[in-house]
Amino acid sequence: MDPHFDGVIFQTHAAELRRRLPHPWPPFVVLDVRPEDEYEKGHIPGAVWGGHLDFPRAVPALGHLPGRIEIFVVGRDTADLMVREASLALRRLGAKRVVELTGGMVEWELASGPLEGETTAGEQPKAA
Question: Which of 83, 80, 85 has its CA nearest to residue 100?
Fold first, then answer.
């Protein structure tokens, strides 16, 4: 990570996050800020639920390595205001690298990104 860009809220697309999933370096976490029922129906593999805005509980690494972890914030879609609210709150808590997934879960699913979580009757989770 380039320290010159610490403190900036970045944005990226589903393809970049999908590329990063199997390679957790530099370390990152995916924070899903959608309502809990949506998160439970299906989320990005490894994502933690942060819709309650209790980020230190959702992302324990914040308390230990706030400058050494990237946090990808995921919402429903491009109009999900919770994404920016969460990003700003994370910055106030000391997170240095916050990255918003621009199209949210809508873009993730359109890009055939893998999901984990519950499935609807008769469906199987998408494979990675």
Answer: 83
Residue 27 domain flag? yes
Angstrom distance (rounded) from CA 115 to CA 109: 8
65 within some domain: yes
Is residue 116 in a domain? Answer: no
Q: Is residue 125 part of a domain?
A: no
Residue 66's nearest CA partner among 51, 54, 55, 75 is: 55
Domain CATH for 72: 3.40.250.10
- Token duo for residue 122: 């008769």
Token pair listed for 125: 């989770």
Q: Looking at the 3D structure of the chain, how many domains does it have?
A: 1
φ and ψ at residue 14, rounded to 5 degrees: -55, -40
Both tokens of 8, joined, read 């900036």
In order along its 128 residues, the chain shows pLDDT tens digits of 455 556 678 999 999 999 999 987 888 999 999 999 999 999 999 999 987 767 666 666 565 544 578 899 999 999 899 999 999 988 888 888 899 999 999 999 999 999 999 854 344 444 43
